[in-house]
Write a structure and sequence with these properties.
The chain is α/β, with parallel strands linked by helices. It is about 55% helix and about 15% strand. Helix 2 runs antiparallel to helix 4. The radius of gyration is 21 Å and the shape is globular.
C-alpha cells in the first residue's frame, strides 16, 4: 500500500460492543485494506501510510488527510454533492454565481478527463489549461452568501488538489473507489450492528481485506484463502 502511486481513502462509523469506532478503507485497483480504530483523527492514515508516503491520496475534504505527505486529489463528487444539497435547501444559494459556476466546472472537468484518449495532446492540454484558469476565477469570487463564501474559501485552500487528476492519466477526480469499498462493510454493519469485541473487529478487518483484495486480483476468494491457510500451517504449524 505504501508503494502504491494512488490510494483512495475514506472512513465511516463503526460499532464495537455498543461503542463508537471508525472503519477506514484504503484501496487501489489491486488491493483493499480495512482498519477499525477508535480514532477518526489524522494520526490513523499517517500511521498506516507512513510519513514517507509519496504517492497521491484521493480523498474528500476531511481535514484528517491534510497531515499526510505526498500529493492529494480531492473528490469532485463530494463537492458537487454538497453544492446540489445546499441548492435544494436554499434558493438564494442556488442562484449565487458561486453555486452555478462551481457545479458547471466540476462536471466539465470530470467530462474532460473521460476524453483523455479521444483528444490529441494539444487539444486536451488547451482545454485543461482553460479549466485551470476558470477555477482561479472562481477562487477569486467574493460571495455574500455564507455557504457560498465557505465553499469559495475551500476552493482557495485546496486549489492545487482539485485539478491534479487532469494531468495524470491514472489518477481519478473522484473518491468513488473508496466509497465502493466501504459499501459492503456498511451493509454488514447495518445487519449485524458491528462487532462484539475489538479482537473480533480486528479479525473481521483482516479477513475482509484479504477477501476483497483476492477478488480484485481475480485470484478466486476460495483458492486464495486456501493458499494462505496452507502456507500458514506449513510455516507455523497448527
Amino acid at each position: 500500500m505504501r508503494a502504491s502511486p494512488h490510494v483512495h481513502v475514506d472512513e465511516t462509523g463503526w460499532r464495537i460492543d455498543g461503542r463508537n469506532f471508525w472503519l477506514w478503507a484504503f484501496t487501489d485497483p489491486t488491493f483493499t485494506l480495512y482498519h477499525i480504530d477508535e480514532s477518526r483523527g489524522g494520526k490513523v492514515p499517517l500511521k498506516l501510510l507512513g510519513e514517507a508516503f509519496d504517492g497521491t491520496i484521493i480523498a474528500d475534504f476531511y481535514s484528517a488527510y491534510d497531515r499526510l505527505g505526498g500529493n492529494k486529489q480531492r473528490c469532485l463528487t463530494h463537492l458537487l454533492r454538497e453544492v446540489k444539497e445546499l441548492s435544494e435547501a436554499d434558493t438564494s444559494f442556488a442562484n449565487s454565481p458561486l453555486s452555478r459556476k462551481l457545479s458547471r466546472w466540476c462536471k466539465e472537468a470530470l467530462r474532460l478527463k473521460k476524453q483523455w484518449d479521444e483528444l490529441d495532446d494539444a487539444q486536451y492540454e488547451m482545454k485543461a489549461s482553460r479549466l485551470e484558469d476558470r477555477l482561479d476565477e472562481i477562487a477569486r469570487l467574493e460571495p455574500d452568501h455564507p455557504d457560498a463564501k465557505r465553499l469559495c474559501q475551500r476552493v482557495r485552500r485546496y486549489r492545487d488538489e482539485l485539478t491534479r487528476f487532469l494531468w495524470d492519466e491514472k489518477l481519478e477526480g473522484t473518491n468513488n473507489a473508496a466509497e465502493r469499498a466501504l459499501r459492503p462493510a456498511v451493509v454488514m454493519r447495518k445487519i449485524t450492528g458491528g462487532n462484539r469485541s475489538e479482537a473480533g473487529a480486528a479479525a473481521w478487518a483482516k479477513l475482509a481485506s484479504l477477501i476483497r483484495t483476492a477478488d480484485q486480483r481475480g485470484l478466486g476468494v476460495y483458492d486464495a484463502t486456501q493458499k494462505l491457510i496452507t502456507e500458514y500451517w506449513a510455516a507455523a504449524g497448527r
